[in-house]
Design goal:
Keywords: Lyase, Magnesium, Metal-binding. The chain is of the alpha/beta class. Helix content is about 35%, strand content about 20%. The chain is globular and about 60 Å long. The two termini are about 15 Å apart. The structure holds 2-succinylbenzoate and magnesium ion (MG).
Length: about 375
């Protein structure tokens, strides 16, 4: 396939409610939608670089720069027989995984559509439904957190992840555990702690958490191995994992026994699949993280999460969890049994609502031959 037009669309989506984490307060979410066109086919992807460099060093402007000046010129107008062909053309670009993943996702969608198969099928998916979960931001008080959890349980979510930060941790976990003795409960610190907090994490062992996500330094695999030796609750890495190599280091050093896969963080579905396959071989469960994606990115997440070793519920929730209106038809919804259907149509399997997309657009840039 020859891609002869690529469009970057900077979007800004207003969150239904502020999303509070140890990294700060989010009121809206900025991402880049990547549209590729060639041979009558349109492919869509979403780069999850955000407006701020607090989760990752990448931002919308850095991803835009890398896409415009390096990734797009490398693939535009080239004869591509697969996504791997495209990756080979820009592989010498180091880092900037979110920029790469946005373009790669659009190419995967285009190639799946050209073969008239679903993205799930093309990636090697085996599920028709994936297990959904919800990630809840820090709340004013433990009581408010209990009310939020109650609401999500009523909607059907059975796995709850809460954000924690110093001063908003054991007290909230204790209150939730008292209210819901059997709740499938995870906590995510987004790197808010250090090894000085080891006693706090030892205390967490009493609350039956299924995992603790990224408690320590965002790039520190070594210190997580020290913490894991001192506590029983499984650690899961998010921010520290940028590649298969990081995954091997994390597992083989004993830094974690569960991996959060986000295609944006690791450079796309191709690297995600390598991580998935390695973890499967090592008997390490993986789950799909979330970056408050629009329906375009969400569709890719759902497809990837249909691979066999995604055995834990993802941070994949309904379109309505974060946004009043999504930019795809149909929107993603959670089923009563906490699952989500994997689209079966060609490619991402949902239609992009161009009117809705326009409403969220901040700026666009078109690249042609
Ligand atoms: O750490 O998993 C995280 C959102 C933005 C950046 C980092 C994270 C998150 C989430 C939200 O937890 C998950 C979602 O609802 O998409
Ligand atoms: Mg996380």
């Amino acid at each position: 396939m020859k891609i002869d037009r690529i469009e970057l669309i900077h979007i800004k989506m207003i969150l239904r409610a502020p999303f509070v984490t140890s990294m700060g307060v989010e009121l809206d979410e900025e991402h880049i939608i990547v549209r590729v066109d060639g041979e009558g086919i349109t492919g869509w992807g979403e780069s999850v670089a955000e407006g701020t460099p607090f989760y990752s060093y990448e931002t919308v402007p850095t991803a835009w720069h890398i896409l415009r000046d390096f990734l797009i010129p490398a693939v535009l107008g080239k004869e591509l027989s697969s996504v791997a062909d495209a990756i080979a053309l820009y592989d010498k670009v180091r880092g900037h995984n979110m920029a790469k993943a946005g373009l790669e996702a659009a190419l995967w969608d285009a190639f799946a559509k050209s073969q008239n198969i679903s993205l799930s099928k093309m990636l090697g998916g085996v599920r028709t439904k994936i297990d959904a979960g919800v990630s809840i931001g820090i709340q004013e008080t433990p009581k408010v957190m209990i009310q939020k959890v109650e609401g999500y349980l009523k909607e059907g979510y059975k796995r709850i992840k809460i954000k924690i930060a110093p001063g908003n941790d054991l007290n909230v976990v204790e209150a939730l555990r008292k209210e819901y003795p059997d709740l499938q409960l995870w906590v995510d610190a987004n790197s808010a702690y250090t090894l000085k907090d080891i006693e706090l994490f030892k205390k967490m062992d009493a609350y039956g958490l299924e995992l603790i996500e990224q408690p320590l330094g965002y790039n520190d695999i070594y210190e997580h191995s020290k913490l894991q030796k001192e506590i029983k609750t499984p650690l899961c890495l998010d921010e520290s994992i940028h590649s298969l190599a990081d995954t091997c280091a994390g597992i083989e050093l004993g830094s974690c026994s569960i991996i959060n896969i986000k295609p944006g963080r690791v450079g796309g579905f191709t690297e995600s699949k390598l991580i998935h396959d390695y973890c499967q071989k090592m008997n390490v469960p993986v789950w799909h993280g979330g970056m408050l994606e629009s329906g375009i990115g969400r569709a890719g997440n759902v497809a990837l999460a249909s691979l066999p070793n995604f055995t834990l519920p993802g941070d994949i929730s309904s379109s309505k969890r974060h946004y009043l209106e999504d930019l795809v038809d149909p929107e993603f919804v959670i089923n009563a049994d906490s699952t989500m259907d994997v689209p079966t149509g060609p490619g991402i399997g949902v239609e992009v609502n161009l009117g809705q997309l326009k409403k969220m657009t901040v700026r666009t840039e078109v690249f042609t031959l």
